[in-house]
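Archive entry: two folds, one per protein. Generate the first.
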Amino acid sequence: MVFIEPVIKNKIKLARVEKGLTQEELAELVGVTRQTIGLIEAGKYNPTVKLCLLLGKSLSKSLDDIFWLEEEN
């Protein structure tokens, strides 16, 4: 049996743009740097549960709306 590790995908950028926020503004709302938001949007950084919850609250989205697991081939 081969285990395929799922990858966390997100729609942070889409939700941020819909809300009319820059990366800098969203970063200030959740207490991280603009670079951290950029890395999350690019899928290069997996945020903590606490940060996920803060992002969801700041973007008025549920975690299901902005994060999901996807299997890589």
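Generate the second and append.
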Amino acid sequence: MNEPTLEAAAGITAGLEAIATDAVERARRAGADQAEACVESSRSFSVEVNGGKIETLKQSATRGLGLRVIVNGAVGFVSSNDLAGDRVDDLARRAVALARLSTPDPANALPTPAEAGGDGADLGLLDPAVVALPAEAEIEMALELERVALAHDPRIRRTDGAHVSSGSGTSVIANSHGLLRASSGAAVSAYVVPLADDRDGKQQNGAYGLTKRRLADLPRMDAIAREAAGRAVARIGARSVATARVPVVMHPDVAGSWIAEMLDAFSGESVIKKASWLTEKLGATIASPLVTLVDDGTLVGGVGSGPHDGEGVATRRNVLIERGVCAMFLYDAYHARRVGTRSTGSAVRGYSSVPGVGFHNLYLEPGGDAPEAILRKADRGFYMTDQGSFGFNSVTGDYSFQAQGFWIERGEKAFPVEGVTVASNSLDMLRNLVAVGSDLRWEGSVASPTILIAEMTVSGSGG
């Protein structure tokens, strides 16, 4: 993916800004009281290899416009990939017509420049090396991932594929209050899924991969491959255990998945609808004092970072849980007005959708314990390193997942475990969180260190 050049990026941005402001003007002429245009242009390339051969190659380029209008307090929304002037006129008329058929709501209003705040600093989201990364290089990276994984151990004789992808793009938000925001970014990803031969014809997988904004921050392909292969081999001989209530150590991958599942409970939309298990708990102690949960859209080089959100509101650092206390909820402009507050810069969207509440870079702040020390604190219990079938209830916070990992005896990994289910409730898990690791590292837009929960139900054989 070696186009467009960074020199061309400024021209692309200017062109998208012109399209967005023109669309807003056309919507106003069509009868909109307020109008907002979201315009995006993106390019991506991906390769998947299996068995030493290219299985799929995908290259795409997308450009689109989403137009949101408000007429007498009611919203209409349309989108298109055809950005010609006469087509945008038609879109504007359709959006206004849809708004006139919709239900008015006094909370429907677009952010003003004063409400949106400044446009923020350069967050290092557009790496020239990612933009200029040749397709041939990505193909070789994927082939190396699989080649090294297969060479790691004779019991790894095939993979479920190795994948490398990259993408870059620019988005622009403009509205009829005079707000104009633009941002550009790029990212590169790599992952591989080695399969290790186990007894009785079974295979154990060891999937591992990550996404980075900067090519220089992506680990070497051989390091990614060895990590994945090591995970697969470590699971050979896994067995179930008897049902018990024991301490559970969560690997950062698993802990990160849990906090991502929890995020919906902090959505202002869910709280308003009373569909959150945190409704009525603002300001209450809901977790151990070791827990501080943050969503930050301003992290330099963050996969989820951006100078502004999907409505042009400046992003910021939002502390959701502060030392165990439920400190705040997240809002886009609409839901903030519903409760008489201001947007937290948490609107997420693509050009083909209206904004909703989401997150940027979500993480649990690290503590002071090394992962090995946390295993010793558990003494006897379960170290959960992977999860299977979906099992999270976003309304109640109930947590129940098929799990893989290791049984812990005398503070050390004793043997690999599979065929168990780990269950509890998120409020109980938060309150019973008794250790937080120092091993926070970013491999995507959600991150957590190793954590220890004092007691959960591990259901296995004989349960």
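Annotation attached to the second fold: DSSP finds eleven helices and 20 strands in the chain. Residues 238-463 form one domain.
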